[in-house]
């Protein structure tokens, strides 16, 4: 529908006054000065005691606080760009590598190729006696059908 982008505010809406509850909710929260104290996400703070501020760590604690050393064989990450060696720039692929890199030829796809045609040897195939034996269902798992009379 074609309507104006501007909305018209009625006279009654323009002359209304907010409720005291709405006025109190519009006021910002009064917070005491908490400079240097970490606040949790719920607005609680836990002041640090003077004894904790003056505490000195033991030698063992200092030793445990040190970062672990890298392994002696550690190698840092490689740079994003590095120079390409001249042997890599002048390398030629061998004949066998070129043969392997070519896509395989699709000799089966011809104009008269029928994927649903069954070959004559497949039509003449017979199951072995062992396969026939395995195809028979187990007698203990066979249940007789119910006869409704």
From TrEMBL:
Domain of life: Eukaryota
Spans annotated as Disordered: 1-33
UniProt keyword terms in alphabetical order: Repeat
Keyword ATP-binding: no
Native source organism of the sequence: Tegillarca granosa
Keyword Lipid metabolism set for record: no
Xref: Pfam families: THEG (PF14912)
UniProt name for this protein: Testicular haploid expressed gene protein-like
